[in-house]
Amino acid sequence: MTTHEGVGINVTVNGESRDAIIDVRETLVDFIRVDLGLTGTHVGCRTGDCGACTVTVDGEVVKSCLALGVSADKAEIRTIEGFAESSEHLSIIQTAFWEEFGFQCGYCLPGMLFCTEELLKKNPDPSEAEIREAIDGNLCRCTGYHGIIRAVRRAAEETSQAQREKDELRDEEVWARPGERVDRALRGRESES
Ligand code: FES
Ligand code: FES
């Protein structure tokens, strides 16, 4: 819908459907921060250089200062507020940044976390050079980057470990099932006799 006040859009943000009427000139970062009130998405440069405004749109990592809000109509947006596994549990990546002192003020975290997530999806065991390349385009004025590199390495190791444990559990379940069926059949025979 277009009115003299703006354009009507609908987005799903961190799993929640939101309707809004926005000015066609409004950037996505302003829509997220001002209209939706999600201020964990930061504004640093407004020129695409710092990464503080990073979100995902339909799974793609996007610097939201470079996009218009209307371009996100009908899209699924994830902001830093939706990064944790739940309201009680941080994700593996967030925990690694916490444990390895990968942030201080946290201004750069949207870009650092989303870029780390994207990297680990494509490359579960990145080298230091690959990590540096993946977070290139995100400026951190506090940490000197060493803690961030350690955090991404730790997140990579712990993500792989979690995946191994999940696979082992699945294998155990697959092997346990026939045994359980035999047990059940034997119990059935005992009760018949
Ligand atoms: S505010 Fe968007 S990249 Fe800096
Ligand atoms: S932690 Fe402050 S800018 Fe990175």
Describe this structure in words.
Helix 2 packs across helix 5. The longest helix is centred in the last third of the chain and has 47 residues. This protein has a five-stranded mixed β-sheet, with helices on both faces. Strand 3 and strand 4 form a beta hairpin. The chain starts with 6 loop residues before the first strand and ends with a helix. The chain folds into two domains: 82 residues, Beta-grasp domain (Ubiquitin-like (UB roll), Roll); 110 residues, [2Fe-2S]-binding domain (DNA polymerase, domain 1). By secondary structure, it is α+β, with helices and mostly antiparallel strands. 44% of the residues lie in helices and 13% in strands. Bound molecules: FE2/S2 (inorganic) cluster (2 copies). One FE2/S2 (inorganic) cluster binds next to loops.
